[in-house]
Amino acid sequence: MLIVGIAGGTGSGKSTVVRKIIERLPENEVVVIPQDAYYKDNSSLPLEERQEINFDHPHSIEFELLVDHLIKLKNGQPVEQPIYSYLTCTRAKETIPVFSRHVIIVEGILILTSKQLRDLLDIKVYVDADADDRLGRVITRDIIERGRSVSKVLERYEKTVKPMHLQFVEPSKKYADLIIPQGGNNEVAIKILVDVILKTLIDHSKI
Fold first, then answer.
1. In this structure, is the dihedral angle defined by the CA atoms of residues 100, 104, 106 and 107, taken in order, positive or negative?
2. Are the CB atoms for 38 and 62 separated by under 8 Å?
3. CA distance 179 to 175
4. Could you give the domains of the chain?
5. At what angle do helices 14-23 and 187-205 cross, to 10 degrees?
6. What are phi and psi of 21, to 5 degrees?
7. Among 15, 104, 131, 152, who pairs with 148 as Cys (CB 3.0-4.6 Å)?
8. Can you tell me the distance from the alpha carbon of 40 to that of 42, in angstroms, rounded to the nearest whole number?
């Protein structure tokens, strides 16, 4: 089994990189574990307070549960992945059953900030992108997927996304084994990463 961590700033193109990796690997060999599914449940707070939560701070993630699930998957055990809603800022009662595969991809902006999680990753990747490009993607995504206004998105970007990126996300780049500039548009870097994954899987199959 190979565990690949893919980090990078909000709107950097991580999801595109993950999708292109999956497209180039054997079918049913990969499972993706999104960091976003492991945001702490905030159902005890009023909706107004929930909507002001800083989702770009490491304290917002239940890393202990994420690490526990990765260890279980590594040992061949299935897990029940949480479902988190950005609209309500709470976890659903339902969960998603996830089964172990030869390749596990953990994706999220803060995954390289946790040493406990980093120690489980066989390959650590950081997807880099220009700040203006990331902001453009964040505006589009938050309006369409999360029902936020442009002014609310820009306010959140200045108050939390940008400072948290500079304080936590950007510094975590130093832990990466591979940095992919230009996000999902960097076909050369994605090909190198896929080749490394495939070679590792082949080498492990010979053991």
1. negative
2. yes
3. 10
4. 2-205 (3.40.50.300)
5. 50
6. -65, -50
7. 152
8. 6
